[in-house]
Amino acid sequence: MTAMQPDDLEADSGAGEGHDPMVERVAELADDDLAALCEAANAAIIDGGGFGWVNPQPRLSLESYFKGTLLVPERQLFVARLDGTVVGSAQLVRPARNNEARAFAAELQHSFVAPYARGHGLARNMTLRVEDAARSLGYHLLNLDVRETQRAAIALYESLGYIRWGIHPAYARVGGRTIRGIFYYKLLQHGGRIV
Ligand SMILES: CC(C)(COP(=O)(O)OP(=O)(O)OC[C@H]1O[C@@H](n2cnc3c(N)ncnc32)[C@H](O)[C@@H]1OP(=O)(O)O)[C@@H](O)C(=O)NCCC(=O)NCCS
Predict the structure, then answer these.
(1) Which of 69, 71, 99, 126 counts the highest number of beta carbons within 10 A?
(2) pLDDT, position 18
(3) Is the Cβ atom of 113 under 6 angstroms away from ligand 1?
(4) Could you give the number of structural domains in the chain?
């Protein structure tokens, strides 16, 4: 049984009528949810849009990864469901406690939706849920970065008001090719102003 957080009661409904898309934060994953999340992750990796991974991973590696993620105090895991089945996830990453100078900024990492569940507004809703969580924890801004080949993600984040501030010329290597990375931030407080 998935452990619910208080704010899960207000899980967002996505677009995509008839498919019951929703997003929730999870603190635990039931076996069937973990299996579905691993399947979704491998489907995204095979499709070319894995979050860091380039090659499909053994089930045990992915299970360890997600179980480990749930244990890291600085990480919050959000999952996307379509008709009840977990089909994607995203993480809110809080700054390390020693990083006092950057204690106002959190990060959105590892957002993905399985190819068979795309186009229902799930990634948009996960992003908005992560923003809400970061805002309610008092963070002033959210950072994120993507490979320049991740066109859907770029369109998504720019449509949500993320500001492109830089390009890393050697961000990732996939299939022997060096790929640039695009870096974004979004101000979450004070009406989007830097104070
Ligand atoms: C990026 C990704 C998460 C989008 O997931 P999704 O659930 O299909 O996205 P949504 O349905 O919420 O779409 C929201 C917006 O994203 C953009 N978008 C989504 N798919 C798109 C596509 N194929 N081409 C262009 N824009 C796209 C659009 O702006 C869309 O808004 P619209 O429907 O009003 O046009 C998904 O394609 C994915 O997992 N890609 C691989 C991993 C990745 O790139 N992760 C992000 C970096 S960590």
Answers:
(1) 126
(2) 65
(3) yes
(4) 1
CB 158 within 8 A of CB 101: no
Nearest protein CA to atom 8 of ligand 1, as residue: 118
Instruction: Determine the atom of ligand 1 nearest the C-alpha atom of 108.
Output: 48
The helix (H) or strand (E) run that includes residue 9 is none
pLDDT at 153 (0 to 100): 97
Q: Decide: 49 in ligand 1 pocket, CB within 6 A.
A: yes
The CATH number for 129's domain is 3.40.630.30
Q: Is the dihedral of CA 21, 138, 29, 61 positive or negative?
A: positive
Residue labelled with tokens 């507004």:
121
Q: What pLDDT is recorded for position 191?
A: 80
Atom of ligand 1 at shortest distance to CA of 120?
11
Q: Residue 147 C-alpha to ligand 1 middle, in angstroms? A: 14
Q: Which protein residue has the closest C-alpha to ligand 1 atom 31?
A: 156
Report if residue 188 sits inside a domain.
no
Measured from the CA of 15, which atom of ligand 1 is nearest? 11
Closest atom of ligand 1 to CA, residue 109:
48
The closest alpha carbon to 39, from 76, 111, 89, belongs to 89
Block means of pLDDT (10 residues each) for the chain, 195 residues, are 41 54 97 98 91 91 98 97 98 95 96 97 98 96 97 98 98 94 95 76
